[in-house]
Write a structure and sequence with these properties.
CATH architecture of the largest domain: 3-Layer(aba) Sandwich
Structural class: alpha/beta
Radius of gyration: 21 Å
CATH class of the largest domain: Alpha Beta
CATH topology of the largest domain: Aspartate Aminotransferase, domain 2
Distance between the termini: 25 Å
Bound molecules: pyridoxal-5'-phosphate
């Protein structure tokens, strides 16, 4: 077996049609969308198509979609934007203990500026308590920011219930959702679910890196992070990443249209079930950290007594790519804040690996991975 890529929560392989279209745009449609001539107009048309494709998938208006450099920037823009624009209404913000670093670290930075932040606890599955959230919302709370699908565990926060809950308690509290791991995997309907701001990123859905979007509900004012030429209606200055925006189009168009009767990526669900069934047969002692009803693509496993990093490298030796945790943190020594928040014992945290699937994985690849995993585990015990 040549290569089995099971690190799709870190990033995905771009689709051939993404690469093809980006190459065409880089070589032929290299105009600046702000230019008045034909090349500029052609570039602007590509941006319009991209905005429309994303808006259609999310069920929102194209005018509510803003391009950014990715999930990290969208999260920063949403959180800092709301906090500073509405600081006269209040300086209290709410998030959870299991957010992505681009959210947690943004809130920490805001605390240093004098904002008060409530970090909600989670249960063993990584889910917040709706009662705890309800009790935390105050008249001066301007923002609740929560992850939809957790990138380390795959747990799914019920954001469809959380939006209405927040608005019932304080209709002036904005709701931001980090949808980077949920977009394209499960149903996500910001407008129906009273979500005001939503972060998505192209490289998690077989699009290019360095391009993301922020859904911002019409009528919400937001102070920009970047000042300059006033692109993206003044919200995000800087010449647009047109090849990236172009590459977003085939990636988005390749996603299924989820509905309330078919809310999950069924092919991924089948692969995940197949993986878990084979794992339980072959290595029944494995600790599975991901909730059964979690996202269709993320499986967190612990092998207490083993080191996750060692397992990652020994599997790599067999051509299998997995990770220990969130890609941006896997090179530092600190234990995962997500796994700590769900009270996983330290030896379980150290022995954790994350398998993340894509629609292109095959059952044979899973068979091969489980067989190699079993061989490696036997070597260690
Ligand atoms: C849940 C979540 N939010 C945000 C991000 C950051 O996205 P980007 O890599 O596009 O900056 C990631 C990436 O791993 C993620 O998993």
């Amino acid at each position: 077996m040549k290569e089995v890529y099971l690190d799709n929560s870190a990033t995905t392989r771009p689709l051939p049609e993404v690469v093809e279209y980006m190459t065409e745009v880089l070589t032929e449609n290299y105009g600046n969308p702000s230019s008045l001539h034909n090349k500029g107009l052609a570039a602007e048309r590509i941006m319009k198509r991209a905005r429309k494709a994303i808006a259609r998938k999310l069920g929102v208006n194209p005018g509510e979609v803003y391009f950014t450099s990715g999930g990290t920037e969208s999260n920063n823009l949403a959180i800092k934007g709301v906090a500073s624009t509405y600081k006269n209404r209040g300086r209290h913000l709410i998030t959870s203990k299991v957010e992505h670093a681009s959210v947690i670290d943004t809130f920490t930075a805001l605390e240093e500026e004098g904002y008060e932040v409530t970090y909600l606890n989670t249960d063993k599955k990584g889910l917040i308590s709706l009662d705890e959230l309800a009790n935390a919302i105050r008249p001066e709370t301007t923002l609740v920011s929560l992850i939809h699908v957790n990138n380390e565990l795959g747990s799914i926060n019920p954001v469809e219930k959380i939006g209405p809950l927040i608005k019932n308690i304080n209709r002036n509290t904005f709701f931001h959702v980090d949808g980077v791991q949920s977009f394209g995997k499960i149903l996500l309907k910001p407008a129906d679910w009273q979500i005001d701001l939503l972060t998505i990123s192209a490289h998690k859905i077989h699009g290019p890196k360095g391009i993301g979007a922020l859904y911002l509900k019409k009528g919400i004012e937001l102070k920009p992070l970047l000042h300059g030429g006033g692109q993206e209606k003044g919200l995000r200055s800087g010449t647009e990443n047109l090849p990236g925006i172009a590459g977003f189009i085939p990636a988005v168009e390749s996603l299924p249209d989820f509905t309330s009767t078919s809310p999950r990526y069924e092919k991924l669900d089948r692969l995940r079930d197949y993986f878990l069934n084979r794992l339980k047969e072959t290595l029944p002692e494995t600790v599975i950290n991901s909730p059964e009803e979690g996202a269709p693509h993320i499986i967190s496993l612990s092998f207490p007594g083993l080191k996750g990093e060692i397992l990652v490298h020994s599997l790599e030796g067999e051509g299998i790519y997995v990770s220990t945790r969130s890609a941006c943190h896997s090179r530092n020594d600190q234990k995962s804040h997500v796994l700590k928040a769900i009270n996983l014992p330290p030896e379980y945290i150290d022995g954790t690996i994350r398998i993340s699937l894509s629609r292109f994985n095959k059952e044979e690849e899973i068979d091969y991975t489980i067989a190699k995993l079993a061989e490696q585990i036997k070597l260690f015990f």
